[in-house]
Each structure stands twice: as C-alpha cells, then as structure tokens.
Amino acid sequence: MAGSWRNKEEGRTMSYIKKIEGDTIVIYEGDQKDFWIQETVGETYMKAFLGGRLKSVYVHDFSDEMLAFVSIGMNLILDFSAVSYMSFSFMRALLSIQQEIEKKDAELKLIRLPEHIYGEFEKTGFSELLDLGV
C-alpha cells in the first residue's frame, strides 16, 4: 500500500510504502524503514513488537491493524522497546483503541516503553488511562 503526506517544513510531498515482510508490516519512507510492526498471534492475544518512528501520518494504518484484532476480541500486548519517537496522535489512537477494547471485555497492555516515551504518557496523564506494564 502506498500513501503520501505533505511535509510542511520542506514544502514537498513525501511518500511511503507499506509492505508485508514475513510476519512484519514495514512502512518505508523513501528507501528507509521508518516504522514496523512484528506480530505474534496466540489463541487469545496478539503481541506486537513496534519499532521506528511512530509518526502521525502512519496512525491510520496502525489503528486499522490493531482494531482488526480488537474486533475479534483479542487482547493486545504492544512492545515499544524499539520505538524512537511517538507522535501525540499515536498516543490518542491508543486511547481510542483502549475504548474499543473495553467494549470487547479484552485488555490492552503497553510494555517496555523507552523512558522518554513513558515520560510523555505521564505528562499528558495518559499513564492513568492506559496499562503501562513492564
């Protein structure tokens, strides 16, 4: 899947490509991996290892992927250990996913958040609304 967005700082249109490589969804910005999700699916859960830069331009792809698992009542475990950046829109998307997952009586757990990202969850108060496990 290809997409694009307008880079306001540089005044040009940027593009990205979404590919499936084995059990990993990779989004390339140009020729570099920018964001990836590696999924492991169990009987009652889906564990996603996230990496790269979670930019707002990718939030719809991410939400759609997570909500597909939520729709069938799966528990979600999201490992953020390889994430270098997370936009505020990703944080808001996690709250929306949390709301949907509660309707299915399932759980969302965020684990191994880098210190700088954990700090952002605390500053915004989202740490009180989401399960930030270890």
TrEMBL record:
The family database entries (Pfam families) matched by this protein are listed as:
STAS (PF01740)
Keyword list, A-Z = Membrane, Transmembrane, Transmembrane helix
Q: Which InterPro entries match?
A: STAS_dom, STAS_dom_sf
State whether keyword Transmembrane helix applies. yes
SUPFAM superfamilies assigned: SpoIIaa-like (SSF52091)
The keyword Membrane belongs to this UniProt entry's keyword annotation: yes
Q: Where is the STAS domain?
A: 50-134
TM segments?
66-88
Question: What is the protein named?
Answer: Anti-sigma factor antagonist
Source organism phylogeny: Bacteria, Bacillati, Bacillota, Clostridia, Lachnospirales
